[in-house]
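Supplementary Note 3. Input sequence used for the single-chain structure prediction.
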Amino acid sequence: MQKHFGDNLSPTVKYWTFLIGTIVVVFSIISVSFIAAYLNLSPDDQAVIAKLSDRLIPFPFLGSAMLIAFICTMTSLLLRYYIVPVLRMAEQTRLITAANPDYRITTEGGRELVILADVINESADAFQKLQHEVDGMLQKSNLALKEERNRLAALMSELPYGVVVCNKDGRILLYSRLAQEMLQSTNGDQNNGGAVGLGRSIFGVLERDPLVHALEVMNHDFAMDQAKPALGLMTKLCGARFIRVNMAPVTSDEEDARFISGFVLSLEDITGEIDADSERDKLLQGMVDAVQDSLGKMHQRVDLICEMQTTKEDACNYHLQSVAQVTSELEEHLALARNLYSEHRRAYGNRENVLADTLMKLITKNLDERFAIQTEASTNKTIWLKIDSYAIVQSVTNLAGFLKAEYGIAAILLQIGSSDTPLATLTLSWADQSVTSQALRDWQQDPLFMDSDGTSDSPQTIIAKHGGDITITETEEAFCIGIKITLPTALDEEPADLHSSIAPRPVSYEFDLFHQPGQDALGKVPLRKLTYVAFDTETTGLNPSEGDEIIQLGAVRIVNNRLLHNECIDQLVNPQRPVPKSSVEIHGIDPGLLSSQPVITQVLPSFHAFAADSVMVAHNAAFDMRFLQLKEEATGLHFDNPVLDTLLLSSVVHPNQEGHSLDAIAERFNITIVGRHTALGDALVTAEILLKLIPLLEAQGIHTLEEALRASSKSPFVKIKY
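The predicted structure, written as discrete structure tokens, is reproduced below.
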């Protein structure tokens, strides 16, 4: 759009510019005319004029002054009754069409403008009626969609595992209640301001590397034109909890091209199962011990029979019955052991993509809890293994238990390294040199597991099934000081020809977020596509730099132009100072309620996480941001998010309207205020105002965050500081 000089000037500035220009021009013309006429007279005439000047000059200038006064009066009337009303009518008309269809124009201008306002209001009535009809049709059309959505939500709530759907950048598009509970408890923070939410990054609650790796694996398979890309199955360590994550791709078609646009995660908390491993294995070990004891008894009985040269038939039968009884007990123990193992193997029989560091943590955890063996572990954290993690962990644990029981070894060095081959090496070493090589050869052959069908697996068999082998590290005296186990690695990450756009570390249905750009391009993102956190604070006073403190913090999220009422923060704060009565009269918060609340340094980390990767929005944001900035040193947190101010944006779209307070704007937009002067109540109103402002900004050619910030910087209210 072509810009002309004066487009950015207010009507008042234009008015005074016109008047001053008129005065200068009129008096200049009169003065130049007198001077020119005087110079064209003869000297005698000039002398006569000089004598009469005191009588002639005042009247033309007096007439000019009267003319200017008349022009000023008419211009003022024109400005008051026509120009300013026209500008207000333009803003109000745009308000009707873009934000508040119930609004109607009222004007104090000339009769012609009153007639025009009536015509616009009639058109608005017709527009509103048509809009109601369209809304009714849309409502009916959405009923079927809502039913399907409810069915999906009901189905997801019945699933025994959590579900999270993300776009290719890791932004959450959909999540089940179980997934939210699982990941929040996994994070160890129940008060984290809603760590799982629409538009938020899944990497805020799950480790990034395993998810990125699985996505790269899927992209690699997809690039190989596989009809169904392989699922990235992994055992994921999250703090003290283990989450089994199963990943599946979401594909999209565009211009005859098919690509991965996101992924679905199914989450299963297996912490309890892993914690039960030790108890199960202890039970299995107890059964083995019982079997060994029974075998010992049987051998004693047989030896006794053999030693009795003159054993009578009755005594012989007695001993045979004893042997049969012991054998029966042995069979029962073995059957129970087989059943327990079969259940265990069914639960852990999958080959998984496992990070070497995760495998190492599993092994060290088992050795410490079961045998109190001290471990010193080191690993290359970039190595991925394709293994049956349970079988490998049990093989190593079994070896460590054998070394502890037979040789008293209480400290083991563990290391996982890579080589040029597609195999990684797990090395176990110890300082004691009394372990014989033959003992470890026997350990490799001894059955470790036995299925109910009688099939046995030894450590050597398990490693061989993985395509690896076991090498004993021997000394010259046929003793050994360690072993090396080779294990297959998973697909290496290949940066070339991959579709993932995840940058290095920097129930709801919003699938438009599949096309949400990353944080680096935030300035170019359309306002309707941004994620916002509208927030507000209630304080002890209006002077943050002079010791006033926050006593309440409220915030709510906006994702993809939708206000998410269920994703919010409403937190009272202990200011650790008295609350003046004048402040209590405004916000109505009883100071007696604050002493038991957390202090601001405990609240801000949750709010910081809640606002991560979003645009912060507030009304008169300079005030609230100043309180946050003053706490940066105490918390170590920096609120460097982009910030939009609804006060500034309102002055941009309605420069000729009277009043830009929260109440005035809400009234203009027909927004009902509930809980005024409460942090969450004002945050919700601010969020609704922003949603109303966006179409008005777009009507003025302001479509992106960058453009909105640039326009805000030109507001006359931008000079307000705290």
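Confidence is low (pLDDT under 50) at residues 186-193, 450-454, 492-519. The two ends are 37 Å apart (CA to CA).
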